[in-house]
Write a structure and sequence with these properties.
InterPro entries: Acylphosphatase-like_dom_sf, BLUF_domain. The chain is of the alpha+beta class. The chain has 2 helices and 4 strands, in the order βαββαβ. It has a 4-stranded antiparallel sheet, with helices on one face. The protein binds flavin mononucleotide (FMN). The site of flavin mononucleotide has 14 residues, from helix 1, strand 3 and helix 2.
């Protein structure tokens, strides 16, 4: 069964196209490797991301994302089951 997790966060400083490109490239490469899919929305100074995949892989990724210095106030609003 596919596990889904959704969070929101606030950017630390505005990201330009190059920074966003790097983030997307890194994320896509890792997510293909780990069989994770989802959606990332960058809007009004923050992110919303839906992550879907194997429960352990998604939770491991979320722990890494929480520590990422490119954003703050990471708040999950769909809870692990
Ligand atoms: C808003 C945001 C979304 C991210 N989404 C992903 C993601 O979907 N997949 C991913 O691997 N890393 C994502 N990252 C990057 C991770 O925080 C982390 O830097 C990365 O997974 C480390 O990859 P590495 O182990 O290859 O160095 C995201 C970072 C931010 C700030």
């Amino acid at each position: 069964m596919i596990y889904t997790l959704t969070y929101e966060s606030v950017i630390v400083k505005p990201m330009d196209n190059q920074e966003m490109g790097l983030l997307l490239e890194q994320s896509r490469n890792n997510n293909i490797r780990d069989n994770i899919t989802g959606c990332l929305i960058y809007y009004m100074g923050g992110f919303i991301q839906v992550l879907e995949g194997d429960r352990t892989k998604v939770l491991e990724l979320y722990e890494k994302i929480k520590l990422d210095k490119r954003h703050k106030n990471v708040h999950m609003f769909s809870y692990p089951r």
